[in-house]
Design a protein that fits this description.
Number of strands: 13
Shape: globular
Number of helices: 4
Distance between the termini: 23 Å
Order of helices and strands: EEEEEEEHHHHEEEEEE
Strand content: 25-35%
Strand order of the largest sheet: 8-13-9-10-11-12
Radius of gyration: 18 Å
Length: 256
């Protein structure tokens, strides 16, 4: 049976316990195959990682069934980028990181600004969505509010050809593959409070992709978070919607 890593990453263990060092650190969405009966809470698996065949054990809390090809492909891509940035340990100023950020920009446009000068979080999202080749359209852009605004118009008009609808956070039980949008303040962004009603509009914002949900916590991955690709944990209400706070104003609800 095909399974996916459910979480920001999972350690692949040589034995069904944590007594020995992991064989590998598998990122969010990584594909594995079950390889036999569970031993307690540990699932024997086999996988290919960095062109090497591996087998071992992963705790069952860190595995999920596949959702659909588009969602699984998007989360796998985001996880691969998280791993490429050394699980949040590679700073944007490193030559390897700068080259990768340039790839993000050029994946959907013809201009790639300096990685450490221009915020690249929207370019990260656009790159991941474009590479995933979703079955519905998305407005790729270097500013989050460009596609946030487009997705809100799609929601208001009930446009079924769009990959995402930007909805109020209280109206969406969060799902893997959704995105969480917030506004930003400080510096050139000013101090003005924004709300869902500020969309459509153009203002400083940020968006992360939901890669796992456990209980009342969603794990998201985004670019240019702490100058790297990094995980953020988002609290959920008892009904599964995103909790208010941290300037969160919208859920990008996937429509695929």
């Amino acid at each position: 049976m095909r399974l996916r890593i459910h979480g920001s990453y999972a350690n692949l263990r040589p034995t069904p316990n944590t007594q020995q060092s992991p064989l590998a650190k598998l990122p969010a969405g990584h594909l594995v195959e079950s390889a036999g009966a569970a031993i307690g809470s540990w699932i024997p698996i086999q996988t290919i990682h960095k062109a090497f065949g591996l087998s071992g054990f992963i705790h069952d809390s860190l595995l999920r069934q596949e959702i659909n090809p588009a969602v699984d492909r998007l989360i796998e891509i985001v996880g691969e980028e998280y791993e490429r940035f050394l699980f949040g340990g590679l700073h944007e100023s490193h030559p390897t990181a700068k080259a990768r950020v340039r790839d993000y920009w050029l994946s959907f446009g013809s201009f790639a600004p300096e990685a450490t000068v221009e915020p690249w979080s929207a370019a990260f999202i656009s790159h991941a969505v474009k590479k995933a080749n979703l079955p519905k359209s998305f407005k790729f852009a270097g500013r989050h509010t460009t596609y946030l605004s487009d997705s809100k118009r799609a929601f208001l008009n009930q446009t079924t050809s769009k990959a995402y609808w930007a909805v109020p956070i209280r109206d969406r039980v969060l799902q893997i593959g959704d995105m969480v949008g917030a506004y930003r303040t400080g510096g050139n962004c000013g101090s003005e409070v924004k709300t869902y009603d500020s969309l459509p509009g153009d203002f400083c914002s940020h968006v992360d992709i939901v890669v796992s949900i456990v209980g009342r916590t969603a794990t998201t991955i985004g670019g240019n978070v702490g100058d790297t690709v990094k995980v953020t944990e988002v609290p959920l209400n008892a009904n599964g919607t995103v909790a208010t706070g941290s300037k969160r104003i919208t859920t990008m609800a996937r429509q695929y």
